[in-house]
UniProtKB/TrEMBL annotation:
SUPFAM superfamilies associated with the record: TPR-like
Cross-referenced Gene3D superfamilies: Tetratricopeptide repeat domain
Protein name: Uncharacterized protein
Mapped TPR repeat ranges: 1-27, 28-61
Keyword annotations: Repeat, TPR repeat
Matches recorded under Pfam families: TPR_11
Organism: Candidatus Nealsonbacteria bacterium CG_4_10_14_0_2_um_filter_40_15
SMART domains listed in its UniProt record: TPR
InterPro entries in the cross-refs: TPR-like_helical_dom_sf (IPR011990), TPR_rpt (IPR019734), Ycf3 (IPR050498)
């Protein structure tokens, strides 16, 4: 997913991050990366959902909290 993201192939990155999450639903890094990809694509609601999931899995992450605040 990261390779696609870094090459600005956002839709492909999203597909890969979703695949990881389907196999490992509590993989916080995949949720975070998916949130960043959605944010880059302009899908704020989906990005917010992913960042909130990361916060649920890893409470107290200041970076994630800042991303949530920026999307509200």
């Amino acid at each position: 997913g990261r390779l696609y993201f870094n090459n600005n192939q956002i839709d492909e990155a999203i597909t890969q991050f979703e695949r990881v999450i389907s196999l490992m639903p509590n993989h916080s890094n995949a949720h975070y990366s998916l949130g960043v990809a959605y944010q880059k694509k302009g899908e704020k609601t989906k990005a917010l959902q992913e960042f909130e999931k990361v916060q649920e899995l890893n409470p107290g992450n200041a970076d994630v909290q800042a991303k949530i605040e920026s999307l509200k």
